[in-house]
Amino acid sequence: MSDNIKDVLVIGLDGAMFYFIKRFISEGLLPNLEALVNEGVITEALPCPPTDTPTNWTTIATGASTRVHGVTSFYIHIPGEPFEVGQKQRSRGQLTRYCKAEYLWDAADRHGIPSLVLNYPACWPGNMKHGYVCLYTWSMPESVPRIICGSTEYVINIKTPDIEVVDTANLGISSVKHAISFTITLKGDLIEKPSSIRLYAVDPDGSGYRLAIPRDNHIEMVDLGKWSDWIPVKLKISSKSTWGVKIKGGTFKCVFKIKLIERSKDSIKLARSEVFSAEGWTDPGGMEEEVLRYSHYLGDEEALLEPRRRLEYDIFGEEAQFLIRQRLIALRLARMASFFKERIGWRLCFLHYHIMDSVNHRFLGHLDKNFPFYDEDKAELAWKFYEESYKIVDYFVGLLLKKCVTPNTLVVVVSDHAAVPAWRTVNIRKVFIDEGLLKYKRAPSGTYLVDWKETKAFPWIEPLMVWINLKGRDPQGIISPSEYEDVREQVIDILQSLRDPETGDRITTMVLTKEESVNIGMGDERTGDVIYFLRPPYTIWCGPIEDLLTYMATDRHLGEDWLVRDQARVTGIHGYYTPNEKVGDFSNAAVLIMKGPGIKKGVELKKPTRLTDIAPTIAHLLKIPPPRDSDGRIIYEALE
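Given the sequence above, the corresponding structure tokens read:
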């Protein structure tokens, strides 16, 4: 059956939805995905709760449920730690030491199968003997960020005092009419200490300046409109957090490119690429600069970077640049996968592309006629934007099929979740404060922090859990074991009876004890004492990160009376709902497509499978044991 499978490519599409893929295939917009579906199997796949990104990319890679792998969304609370610790360490569950289950690439590594894990939200560090982890756009704690500062332009006035006319003999250049020396400064973003870089411009024959960049044993001459080779520099990088993700700081080798884009008798204008770190984002390390050389700032990128007219579906004026950026990311990701294919000959690749989740968060509500801000013109534009975004997804898939796939490749296209429309935000802090379960006090900084001496129950946002502040388990616990069940029952009653004060609609769909949650794949020591799910269109997060961090509060959280309010900032949500939640055509479930030797052709499975089933199915087709903690099954109905 699987004798001809040589390698496996898992294409992870964050937030991709079964409904959109089926619809746009039927409209002829996705030829590469259509070919995979016609030659393989497609189905919906149920995520593990909570239906969130780190949880389910871990599920896909391990075949394990949340209870087994322990990655409970973006914020993990480990009993015995102060509650603030978990909320101050966003995404630590993406670090391999916090995952309690074995990854499929580790199982493959034991059998000598080289793997690549590329831009994947559950992988750092890899610690593989035969494979590599390579980070890219997805933020990973304890790694050096790939981009240290963004691109910029410099205008050099040739006649200013700081411009030095230089002797070209000192540069090793002869027959040059004129040469100048100048500096550019690298600063801002994550650069902790600005650095000045000396460059040269030369005019060989009076026709105009070219860049002259000294190298170890030669001078690189760069013509107008061309990028230089990579220029190395040592920079001190800040270790500040971005959205709570703590990055690795220190002094590191970095690289950038420079381009002369305009020249005149009085001035020259330069473009500088982003400044990239050249260490700290591959494991094993040492491949970073080689990856950049293979995948970034090659000649065919220029068309993607050119300014474009405002797109007709620019609802908020930002979509054109978003799509240009996403198309470039797709191209570079595909190149990186191809680079490692040539370099290490991977036989198993897990990669992740994060476009559709962003689109869902911003625009999905605009497609729902019940959306309080619904506008037919904006809805039409949103549909066009979805079409264009999925066409970029299809472009990405096509690049990978061309660069990395042979007839002996098993191709798996999978998402971690999708989303449903949501817009009515709930101030969950206010609910617990009004019930006397949660109290804040003003800190010297002016913010509000939880008063643990007066807090009986602590609401967690990602995932939606409630922890009883229990003596003997929690460092600042005040609830005795004898009081535990009474307080927990009070929390359950509050959540079950929570209703919209305007409509009277129930806000939650399911409220479970930790013990009951075992039935839905949760219930380990990292599961809260109470777990609950919201009913669409209710949500808690509407954009600001402080909404998620309940160990602190703002005047907005404490000083307003609202429990429910409509908003139009984040209109597609997934993590607060059950994995099979549906609103009209839109579903929270993931999509799964498989094509390759041993896979049925042109089949749509009638019943959804589960994301836990993917790793054991791949292992079966590779003829290796599944990851040791997998509790999924082999998808036999997809096999010939």
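The mean pLDDT is 93. Try to locate this feature in the token string yourself.
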